[in-house]
Amino acid sequence: MAENKRDYYEVLGVQKGANDDEIKKAYRKEAKKYHPDLNPDNKEAERKFKEVNEAYEVLSDSQKRARYDQFGHAGVDPNFGAGGAGAGGFGGGFDFGDLGDLFEGFFGGGFGGSSRRANPNAPRRGNDLHTSYTIGFFDACKGVKKDIEIAKMDSCPDCHGSGAQAGTQAQTCPECGGSGQVRVTQRTPLGAISTSKTCTRCSGKGKIINNPCTKCGGNGRVRVTKKISVDIPAGIDDGQTIALRGQGDNGINGGPAGDLNITITVRPDTLFRRDGYDIWCEIPVTYMQAVFGDELTVPTIDGKVKYTIPEGTQPGTVFRLRGKGVQRLNGRGNGDQFVEVTVEVPKGLNKTQKDALKSFEESLTDKQYEKRKGFFDKIKDMFD
User: pLDDT band at 190, cuts 50/70/90?
Assistant: First the structure.
């Protein structure tokens, strides 16, 4: 019964005013937590997985969500309140189906199980699947083709999705005529009340399979593990998602397949750091290279290049290699590479080396240390 259902916002763990992105993020988290693949033979997890999907189906639809916010579960569940105590006020012999047109405007469907109930044998789209895949730093920069294994619901190869053994076919349920619903009239002290209920003979499917397929048990689909070849484009970044249309769960009753969404995780590199489509790296130089300038061999994601630093290069100086960054996803050019110079101070000097450096230092004047001279001039002005 709808009145026993948990609040949909509570199911997804979001506030009532949550936006679409927050709802989608919460859904993915909960769906992954209770997914049947991660909880085999766990009936409680299966129940919660269905509950999460039901909540997302309503809250991700702006019209359904508006009805739910206004009327609660009654706004989205046509069975809510059917045959309840409030019905007595209408008197004996009243059929809730007569109110179908009136409640259509409020609830988007029949009330109390009217004839507008969805056809159980209509084509239904398969579920979208979500997975993640980890690639290397250079694979993300250059693009790569990978084979990914996924578990999905696929059409049964034995019965080709019919659910019936080869040579047989499903029959229309004689009890409900294929609608999956039957009308039930109950006598009450307030009169006769007619409601729609799920057909017990076909369990609401509208058809009966007398000889179910032994491979799929009559479901028409089986869970399989498939290897899918994925072209990961050059320029993809950590956390971005690739959508493969039609690679999700197979549809039901001939419906289209869902999509496969692959979220990419990129392993960091020990030498390069990425910022959007730009690449950053540090290159150490000696004290003498910084003083005299030098031609450096600089690594890039495309190989080594030569770059000459000028005389008197300071620590922390950054130079740019245009077009040496990551290819943009739209294919229009590349980012840049930024190289930061770090001056490495020598350690473990012997006495001769130290004496030589001291002699060199004593030969220098303040004019050759512009930053140092400027700093102490400011101190002098401040305190004197």
Answer: low
- pLDDT tens digits for range 295-306: 999 999 999 999
With H, G, I as helix, E, B as strand and everything else as coil, classify residue 10: helix
Q: State the Cα–Cα distance between residues 384 and 41, nearest whole angstrom.
A: 82
User: In whole angstroms, what is the distance from residue 25 CA to residue 243 CA?
Assistant: 16
Token pair in block for residue 192: 């006769």
- CA-nearest of 60, 35, 57 to 47 is 35
Q: What is the pLDDT of residues 107-148, one digit of tens each?
A: 444 444 444 456 777 888 999 999 999 999 999 999 999 999
C-alpha distances in angstroms, 206 versus 117, 119, 184, 211?
12, 8, 17, 16
Residues 6 or more apart from 246 whose CB is under 8 A from it? 256, 257, 258, 259
Alpha helix ranges (H) inside 250-367: 287-292, 351-362
The span from the CA of 369 to the CA of 348, in Å, is 25
Q: How far apart are CA 103 and CA 74, in angstroms?
A: 11
Q: Count CB atoms within 10 A of the CB of residue 342.
A: 12
Give 181's strand partners: 198
> What is the rounded CA–CA span in Å between residue 182 and residue 117?
11
Strands 303-309 and 294-300: what pairing? Answer: antiparallel
194-222 per-position pLDDT tens digit: 788 888 888 888 888 889 998 988 888 99
Within 10 angstroms of residue 103's Cβ, the number of other Cβ atoms is: 18
- Start-to-end Cα distance in the chain: 85
pTM for the full predicted model: 0.60
Q: Which residues pair with 239 in a beta bridge?
A: none
Q: Please report, for the chain, how many H helices and E strands are present, in that order.
A: 9, 15
Q: Which one, of 340, 337, 338, lies nearest residue 326 by Cα?
A: 337
> Distance (Å, rounded) from C-alpha 371 to C-alpha 384?
20
Residue 327: what pLDDT? 94
Q: Do the Cβ atoms of 234 and 191 come closer than 8 Å? A: no
Taking each helix axis from N to C end, the angle separating 100-107 and 62-71, rounded to the nearest 10 degrees, works out to 110
